[in-house]
Write a structure and sequence with these properties.
The protein has 434 residues and is α/β, with parallel strands linked by helices. Helix content is 28%, strand content 29%.
Length: 434
Amino acid sequence: MIKMAQLNRRSLLAGGPVVLASCALGPDVQGANREPLDAYFQVALEAIASCGSLNAGGYGELALDRFLSSHLLSYDYAVVERKVPVPFFEARECSLRFGGQELSLHAQAPVKMTLPEGARGRLSLQFALGPRELDPGDIVVVELPYARHSGFASSLVELVTTVHEKGAAGVVLVTTGPTGEAVPLNAPKGVKTFPLPVAIAGSQHLPQLKAGEGDVATLLIRGVAAQRETRNIIARSSSSEAPCILVTTPKSGWGPCIGERGGGLVIFQYLAEALRHRFPTTPLMFVATGGHEYHNAGAEIFLSDVAPAPDKVKLWVHLGAGLAARDWHETPAGLAPLPSADAQRYLMGRTADLEVLRASFAGQPGLEMPYPLEAGAAGELAGISAAGYRTFGAFGAHRLHHLPGDDLTTTSGRLVTPVAESFLHAIMSLVQQD
């Protein structure tokens, strides 16, 4: 039986007692009637959506922290918070003016603001694979290849450095993707601030930018740049030194992040309860990390400073982005929603564990074909694997990844249920092998 309480933003921010659900889960949920679990996950997704934007250290993420902590405490986990410093930028204006028109842009983190009067220069279209000649003071426009954009690649850092050395006054990167919108990119590792102002435009503005090549333009990025704190939420079921099962998921991102973060967060909650039933004597550790947008800041701090040694972890399970996002048809009129899951998601594990993963995730688009970690992982999972842990995890990027429209329309409880069941089945199978 599942008891659920609908939550609202006010109750979360008030910090009062919050209980999402109490699940008396049977010994084998896989293949059972899924409607109760669909409803459980739908309520959880709606509660997360009520928090608002999940930008690291913002009010929405703080509300989510209270929600997650309350859920973990309700199942007798000991919960602590570890602070993680991250950059912060509140935009007052981010635009490009040329030829009598003004385009609204997104300031790329870590943000370098313009002077109050802006950066003024000639619009110069360049190539992502190597800039052409440009004049000092140019505003460089670079069209990126079509992709589901996510992170600021090292090749883009090199490009920004190169055009800065050539005298550019600013850079506008054009993210070309399924919606045509400007996609904020996760900040590059090791870059505290760019050497010149960098902004993001969507490919919907590309015709105007191409037509305006050679025009004198003004790039404006103004606002408040500072530091603030996000948190890692760390929960333990036991103080035992015996090897534990460790589950991690990021909890921050650009905007509402429901398709991106929602699946991982609600499966995280589900496993926190389900594994208490399945492994009552095994130490469990659940960690939700902040600062994902800033090169996995919270996850890197946890891995380096707090995580148990590899020989103290039976299995590390990582719940990344886009685990249960909706698929869409790309039509001339825009995106049309489908009832099925987006297959652009990747499951990775040790070569020795792939057979179990393949059986556990059979029939799940994208996840049904696990890849060996030895071939190279991405995101937080790459760091976990490189540190020598026995681990598996999944991640992806759906069509509204990092966009304001990544709301409740991008996933559902029905899409989450089979993924959650598969994770539980895989964990049980791998742990019971030992």
